[in-house]
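Supplementary Note 3. Input sequence used for the single-chain structure prediction.
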Amino acid sequence: MAFPYLTDVLRAIGIDIPLPIPTFGLMVATAFFVGQWLCTVEARRLMPAQPKDFMGNTCLIGFIAGLVGAKIFHVLEYPREFLENPGHMLLSTGGFTIFGGLIVGMIAAAIYARRHKAPLPLMLDAAAPALMLAYGIGRIGCQISGDGDWGVAVTSPAPGWLPVWLWAQTYEGNIAGIEIPPPGVYPTPLYETLMAFAAFGILWTLRKHAHAPGWLFGVYLLLAGVERFLIELIRVNATYSIFGMQVTQAQLIATGCIVAGIIVMARRRGRSAPATA
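The predicted structure, written as discrete structure tokens, is reproduced below.
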């Protein structure tokens, strides 16, 4: 079952109040504010000399730029659909590619940080746990609304130890307007939320580990890349043929994140620094 609007959620629990607020947008807003708060907390710990509103402004700039980037990368992923109906794709409330948002958002935030002479490696370390937590919260919005970010059709019964709803769902009433026949598809947004929360726990634990500035962001890149590469194996997405292999845009970028994360971690491994209290 999907709940595209807050009205649907309230009706499911017996409250008939018209609140046509998209649940996906509500969770994205929640993800932003939680991430902004966590970024600010970590920035004050790691960069006490920066103005108090610095990280909040950085997050806002990164978020706005990220929305633009997410839409651009979605268009690049589905060029044929864009050419058929460009207005619909550009103005629709769906169709955002998370890696596009991350790349463009981080570039915009880095430019802003440089202009304010902020230490970029420390800023990235401050943002790493928050980015992962916000991602997990945002995926809850995908799950609740049924925005199409689900997996491929399930062809085997659920293992005995796993609840059926965690194995396959039909997303009845989803906002994408797609009818999914039983037994359903893999609820990949749920899997991504769980993996993102687990990765957040790792980052949060390591944040006070003695390391050089930037190392924690390398860990983030590695975890984010591994998570997305794995989920793409059972997720519905457009594919490209490269050297005879079918890969998705997200898998290509995820591979780049993994490689970049390993390089950053390796280069910073020998530059230990005391953890900030």
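Residues 6-269 form one domain. Strands lie at 239-242, 245-248.
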